[in-house]
Amino acid sequence: MNIGYFSPSYKRPQKSITQIKYPFIKLIVKESEANDYIKNGNDIIICPNEAQGNIAKIRNYILDKYLNDFDAIVIIDDDCKGIGYWQKQKYKIFESDELQEFFESMYILTKEFNYKLFGFNCVIDKGAYSEHTPFSTNKFIGAPCGMILKGNECRYDENIPLKEDYDFTLQNLKKYKGALRANFASYDVKQAEQKGGCANMRNLQEEEKQFDLLQKKWGTKIIQKDNKSKRKFDFNPILKSPIKGV
């Protein structure tokens, strides 16, 4: 099988954390920023400046340009410290060769389910992983790392680039009747802790605006506010799956 590995990057020319850990992953960088990335030792693929704009737009560019060339493509954030998994009460980080083997295995499993999307638990904490359910078929799959299989016709909604992964998950649940998530494995990303990327547009006003757009698109029964959160407004909505599954 042939799996492509890509990481869109924007205004983060320092050596990519993701690429230090997993050097087989190619950064996707717009032409006007390419030289700065190359100077810092990043392995990049240059895309047109107009391919950037927001994270949903560049992800769609990657899907449209490369998905047909591979059996599947993995899109991962450029600030991922590592991808790991729980085993015998210990959390272990995948090394490069192990991670590639893992994606190959998950590609086969996802295909056997007749799904087109695979992803990870978005929480590392052991308490978020129920050992009797190592996999889910109708749960949220975060965009920091996911694998999209060839033939997936879903695309990220460019009008909601801060909630695009919730929408993409729901599109896959609707069209392919499920998406496979490994509950025992998770990613460790900085998400809004550094400059560049989505952090450039994250603020309370924009988050509330995009939550409203997402909720209007899918309805109040599917997209809900987390009223139990200690924050006045939690950036992460609650997704209630519209279909049955694990």
Largest sheet: 10 strands, mixed
What share of residues are in beta strands?
Answer: 15-25%
Helix percent reads 25-40%
State the total count of DSSP E strands.
12
Summarize the structure.
Helices cover 28% and strands 24% of the residues. It is of the alpha/beta class and 246 residues long. The chain is globular.
Give a written overview of the molecule.
The protein is of the alpha/beta class and 246 residues long. Strands 1, 2, 3, 4, 5, 6, 7, 8, 9 and 10 form a ten-stranded mixed β-sheet that branches. Strands 11-12 form a two-stranded antiparallel ribbon. It has helices spanning 17-21, 34-39, 55-66, 96-112, 164-176, 204-218, and strands spanning 3-8, 26-30, 44-47, 72-76, 80-87, 90-93, 117-121, 135-136, 145-149, 180-189, 223-224, 238-239. The protein has six helices and twelve strands. It is 28% helix and 24% strand. The longest helix has 17 residues, at 96-112. The protein is globular and about 45 Å long.
